[in-house]
Give the backbone structure.
Amino acid sequence: RLESARAKQDTFLHNVDTAQTRLTLEEASMESMTEVMQRITELNIQAASDTSTSMDRRIIANEVRALRDELLKMLNTQDVNGDYIFSGSKTRTPSFMRGADGIVEYTGDQSRTSVNVSEVRTIEINTLGSDLFSSTDFAKLDELLTGLEAGDGQQIRESLNGVNEITDKLTVAFGKMAGRATAIDSQRQALEDIDLRLQQLL
């Protein structure tokens, strides 16, 4: 009976390992996205200044375009098995794809993945791409690019709200992911304590 209990604990610990690996990868990707959005915000503020010339704004547009493309790559992060981590259950499909019309759309689904970490507890381990970005968010970045390329100070200034909204959305998603990571850490500690007691009883 004790051996059976230990076998169950081993299964739960394995699930916790899986969850921690997944959340570590999510955390790294989301931190990078946040850093990219911070840089885009800095560039937006710089370009919004009346002292920025049309040439300055075109140079900034080149960097913003590269950063936008980098965000798309980050949203399509894959794990060691080649699975797309932000696509829900459609793990063989990129989370976001750019259509022929230039519009970027979320191509994953809304499935949440949960793992059993005890007899009575399951924990969600995945963030969906749609929690992080949307077609509208990419359109906001494209509007900023249009303003930068046209040297339109008013449009550039108006884009700042949209850029800030994207960053806020990422911050909320990061907080939820961090909460799941904390729950997994505390569950690991509890499982290791139980495993130690079972070993002492055997």
Summary: DSSP finds five helices and four strands in the chain. The longest strand covers residues 96-98. Residues 46 and 52 are 7 Å apart (CA to CA). The two ends are 10 Å apart (CA to CA).
